[in-house]
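Sanity check

After download, print the first record. It should look like this:
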Amino acid sequence: MFAALLLALVGCNDYEISAQVDPPDLVDTAVPVVPTPPPIAADAPIAVCSVSPNPITPPFEQATFDGSASYDPAGLAIVDYNWVLSEKPQGSSVDMPGGNAIRSGFMPDQAGLYVGRLVVTNEAGVASEACEAELEAIPAQDLWVEMFWTVGGDDMDLHLLAPGGAPRTGNDCYYANCKGANGLPWGQAGPIDNPRLDIDDIPGTGPENINIDQPDASGGGFTVMVHDYPGSTMQGPNDVTVNVYLNGQLTWTDTRTISGENSDNYFAQIDWNAGTVTGL
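Expected structure tokens:
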């Protein structure tokens, strides 16, 4: 019996011997290894950051990002203050002002949250962990409407119509009649219930905004409209976003594709008395 088994083994060719493989459902799946970022050096400097005043009112009130309190525990000099604007509202076109430890003159162009991130480096070339300073831009006006679009070179114009108003008349606040400190005379209470167009962007992607300190909607609701100004270099479809803030709170937002040059696109009806916004 042993001799027969030995003869059988001797007669086997190498290619006839194969390793047993588990069925596919039994084969272990390798888990990818995510590299761990290198730890911050024990002798790293400490980034200390702040922003003031906070909150502020867009679009013209200014804030200052300050990293001058950053330090090195070993007493080494801080030689670089790397500030970046790591977060801002969708559609905002602002960036971190230039400078060193202190970055002054920051003006938010939209309502929302802005985050400044600071990393400092000491004279030995060692960088700190990031420090973040959050800035809130909250409209001071009771009614705030802002608009931005996706592709530049396509002049979009924001309009706010008074109750019963018609486009491009005295009851329509837009670029031709609504700029300036006093805005467009509406209502009975003087400038406080006048609409104002703060920003009119032609070549870029916005934003544009119209606001009223204390609206008088005794005759009905306001209407938000976007006009695709004709003759732009970009004439294809473009995504346009409108945000409506009531008493400092984002109440309504919508993004729509506008594709017709010289078209009036009605976005929303604002019922100020009821505190509601309805898409059109």
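If your output differs, re-run the checksum step. Summary of this record's structure: The CA atoms of residues 129 and 228 lie 46 Å apart.
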